[in-house]
């Protein structure tokens, strides 16, 4: 087997961290860059790499060595950040973030949410915390508690509703820092609703508060898929591992006859994800009740209806990813 084939056996995240792969006789030595990982994630990386390479044809012994950038900051303590991004607006990124947070909380995770969409914050509406104000303790904010068990912070909690924020980049990123560096208590994972798009604001946010992973949302339309690929590139450039892609607004289920139609095509996001080697996390149907419940501040993921199921399935996939990460 040549070295490229061996590398291809590695999980995507481990493959992206390969700095050297050498075979001498039957001994294969892999050096992986473990920068930014805490002890548990390093162990998991080493284990995964070892088991993926062991048993490959022609390989007797596998040695995995981890290296890290010496100048690196100590690994972040505090909550792990999972970013939710999209290449363009209106694909349902905020809806997914809110419902994913609720579904993760229902599954017993200690999850918080930061609405980084400082220009058009919608999370206070989605999670029914409009009008609430976070307290400050010292120079830090204390998140607002939503009635769905998800503590959260949004620019929408700090400014008058409906007032567009005409802030320039540096002010927006300063405000964003306040939302992330808040008093999160026992929260283990923060979902970060990024502003739509792949511009400077997103890049600054990713650099300042490096997420442990990212979820990309797309609709099945061709154009949205091209944008989703752009979002994937943004995360890859920032060395943020991609947890996977979610297809939103898939097949419309007619509320009258129950028949499913596919106004935007079907399966496009899944095919695009597979082509790009990105895990596919699931699809959320286009449904009037999803929109109505979201607008009313009652996230479908909090209910018992069929609208809740796709969100809890996707939350389970994200939960598995988080568990794998911490070993
Ligand atoms: N699966 C769905 N079925 C029906 N409507 C949906 C679905 N997902 C989202 N929507 C609706 O689409 C609109 C856009 O959703 P949302 O605000 O979540 O998108 P976004 O990508 O965060 O957009 P923005 O660019 O405003 O941040 C909202 O009215 C929302 O209720």
UniProtKB/TrEMBL annotation:
Keyword Nucleotide-binding attributed: yes
Q: What are the binding positions for ATP in this chain? A: 87-94
Which InterPro entries does the record cross-reference, listed alphabetically? Answer: Mrp/NBP35_ATP-bd, NUBPL-like, P-loop_NTPase, YlxH/NBP35
Q: Key word Metal-binding present in the record?
A: yes
Which keywords does this chain's UniProt record carry? ATP-binding, Hydrolase, Iron, Iron-sulfur, Metal-binding, Nucleotide-binding
> How does the record describe its quaternary structure?
Homodimer.
Family affiliation: Belongs to the Mrp/NBP35 ATP-binding proteins family.
Q: What does this protein do?
A: Binds and transfers iron-sulfur (Fe-S) clusters to target apoproteins. Can hydrolyze ATP.
Designated name of the protein:
Iron-sulfur cluster carrier protein
Query: Per the UniProt entry, what species is this protein from, by scientific name?
Result: Tsuneonella deserti
